[in-house]
Amino acid sequence: MFKILRIVLFISLLLGAGLSLSQSVLQDSLQDSTKANIPNIVYTINIDGAIGTVTADRVIDAVTQAEEAHADLLVIMMDTPGGFNDAMWPITKAIMNSTVPVAVYIYPVGAKAASAGVYITYASHIAVMAPGTNIGAAHVVSGTGQPIDSVLSDKIMNDAVASLKAMAERNGRNAQWAEDAARQSVSITSTEALEKNVINFIAADFDDLLKKVNGFEVNTALGKKIVKTGNPFTKPIKKTFIQSLLEIISSPNIAFILFSLGGLGLVLELYNPGAILPGIVGGICIILAFYSFRTLPINYAGLLLIIFAILLFILEIKIVSHGLLTIGGVIAIIIGGMMLVDTADPSLKISKLVIFAVAFVIGGFVLIAFTLALKARIAKPTTGAEGLIGQIGIVKSRIDKSGFVYVAGELWEASSDEAIDENVEVIVMEVKDLKIKVKRRT
């Protein structure tokens, strides 16, 4: 009996152990299955064009959104000719202090990361380029956009190079090439960049990027972190309406057009007081233009020339100069437009085509307004007593020293140096004391 009990107990223990093991295996399997279905959140943002204040605001906002969502990765897809230092440094600082891994992807084919784009790429935790892209030409520019070549500028250059080197060391990239890009403005292709350890990967497209960065270890603000993109859920961060609007008006070409159109609106309002609409539109354009000027390196001599041109256009309407003031205004606005944005970067210059088009359009409008104003001044009066002079009338009562003439819809007492019979056409020569003097129409 005792032996049977031991056998039953042994079998019970085996069954319990087997059941416990099977439950453990089942739980592990369920946990693995659950983990496999957890999506990896990947935020994306596009930078296309010059780096400006609006771009900096967008990138900083994207980093903040990714951190709040505890995203696994933020991808900045970039194609830029460069930009301004005041916008570039906040972007690099935001990326380097991000708790979420940030990858800069120079994309699509034919894209480039020049000037400020090099600094942003080096600040990123992961640098990726598409085939057929290039990176480089990171020579430092001053706050006004001009190349820094003076002896005094060595401090600025050395500081910029030191920043690039610090980024390179932090992210394990080629520090020497970074210095060459800043000091000598060298540029390289994506293949050369990979060979020189300037970037981490070459990716054919976005999906290829996600596959290659999966499992990659990076240094974030919170320390080392493994990037997880095995089960990606992509969330693009699109521009808001306000960001799109501000980005458009921050363009040097648009800024110039807005300020010029604002001046034209004021000119038209002064030409025709009470029109209201030109004044409202002009005021709005000038305010938006001044926002744009805040984001651009403005040469105030160029700005003053444009203001001077607007003053000349206003004076043209008030003073008969036979077009000389308009010609001076057109010349001033062309020179001012060429000087307005103080930068050596061709991509940030105002287009000469835009400058000449705006100058001649505004000059044309002013000439039209001047012509209408001049005609109004010299035009013969058409109302009142003076408006009767030169009018043709019909004698209704024989004029013998005096009589009556029907003219301009009314019957007037008339006199003449000669006798004129009824129903004869006459011309009004003079108006005095509500009487008219006429002569026979020949």
In short:
The protein is an alpha/beta fold.
3D architecture notes:
This protein is an alpha/beta fold and 442 residues long. The chain folds into three domains: 36-240, 2-enoyl-CoA Hydratase, Chain A, domain 1, CATH 3.90.226.10; 251-378, no CATH class; 386-440, OB fold (Dihydrolipoamide Acetyltransferase, E2P). The protein contains 14 helices and 16 strands. It has helices spanning 2-37, 53-68, 85-96, 116-123, 154-171, 175-184, 190-195, 206-213, 241-249, 252-271, 277-295, 300-318, 324-340, 352-378; strands spanning 40-48, 73-79, 102-106, 112-114, 126-129, 134-136, 187-189, 201-202, 217-220, 223-226, 232-236, 392-400, 402-407, 410-415, 425-432, 435-440. A hairpin with a 1-residue loop joins strand 12 (392-400) and strand 13 (402-407). Helix 10 runs parallel beside helix 12 and helix 12 runs antiparallel to helix 13 (324-340). The radius of gyration is 39 Å and the shape is elongated. The chain starts with a helix and ends with a strand. The relative contact order is 0.08.
